[in-house]
């Protein structure tokens, strides 16, 4: 849906069918969203909730207040005692799942049902001296710069005025992940580059810096400010 929106595809003829299928995935009374795959036996996944709500938003479809509240209650149950969000209730908190939770609650315009302070503190603890990690005890990975910085930006913590964020250190980490031979970013300096980490590493850095110029090896890039409010979390109302 995001690609269709970016490239201007006309989905008006398919809109009703797509909306109907997406709504069928969220038919559960307890707020669980299914994947739609016949082989999927796992009940509920925060990633599917985010994808369904974002897709409906891109299709300019407004959920009812009851539907939105039901989804928001399930999402808030995914928050752990540490502050982050897990894949489903009872799971370990993870930066990627936290991003999905925060973005979905922003889309639903229902951000008052979770512990904001503990979530912000948990996310800030994911910022290391050499990048960002996805959960405690894990090494830094360039893609988590996106999940962490994106979540913090949606929660109003970026741009920052209290100097808690070392943008120079974050930039140095992304630069260390750059592979001059192929031109992409790797998860960390010891891994091969790939498109996934190139995209999320640059997108996360642009959110942390608010745009501007950055040098990767011998290449100088102009990072546009990543308008996450418009691209991901703009409320349809």
From TrEMBL:
Transmembrane segments: none annotated. Residues 8-208 form the Prenyltransferase alpha-alpha toroid domain. It comes from the Eukaryota. Keywords: Metal-binding, Prenyltransferase, Repeat, Transferase, Zinc. It holds the Pfam family Prenyltrans. InterPro entries: PGGT1B-like (IPR045089), Prenyltrans (IPR001330), Terpenoid_cyclase/PrenylTrfase (IPR008930). Its cofactor is Zn(2+). GO terms for molecular function: metal ion binding; protein prenyltransferase activity. Belongs to the protein prenyltransferase subunit beta family. PANTHER family: GERANYLGERANYL TRANSFERASE TYPE BETA SUBUNIT, GERANYLGERANYL TRANSFERASE TYPE-2 SUBUNIT BETA. This is Geranylgeranyl transferase type II subunit beta. It comes from Perkinsus olseni (Perkinsus atlanticus).
């Amino acid at each position: 849906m995001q690609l269709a929106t970016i490239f201007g595809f006309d989905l008006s003829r398919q809109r009703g069918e797509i909306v109907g299928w997406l709504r069928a995935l969220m038919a559960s009374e307890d707020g669980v969203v299914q994947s739609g795959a016949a082989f999927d036996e796992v009940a509920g996944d925060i990633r599917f909730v985010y994808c369904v709500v974002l897709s409906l938003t891109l299709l300019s479809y407004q959920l009812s207040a009851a539907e939105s509240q039901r989804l928001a209650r399930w999402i808030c149950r995914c928050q752990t005692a540490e502050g982050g969000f897990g894949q489903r209730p009872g799971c370990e908190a993870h930066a990627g799942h936290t991003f999905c939770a925060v973005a979905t609650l922003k889309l639903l315009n229902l951000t008052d049902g979770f512990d904001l302070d503990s979530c912000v503190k948990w996310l800030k603890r994911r910022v290391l001296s050499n990048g960002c990690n996805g959960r405690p005890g894990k090494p830094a990975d360039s893609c988590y710069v996106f999940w962490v910085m994106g979540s913090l930006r949606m929660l109003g913590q970026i741009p920052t005025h209290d100097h808690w964020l070392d943008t120079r250190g974050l930039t140095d980490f992304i630069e260390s992940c750059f592979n001059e031979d192929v031109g992409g970013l790797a998860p960390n300096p010891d891994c091969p580059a790939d498109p996934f980490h190139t995209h999320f590493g640059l997108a996360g850095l642009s959110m942390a810096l608010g745009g501007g110029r950055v040098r990767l090896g011998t290449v100088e890039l102009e990072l546009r400010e990543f308008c996450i409010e418009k691209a991901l979390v703009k409320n349809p109302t």
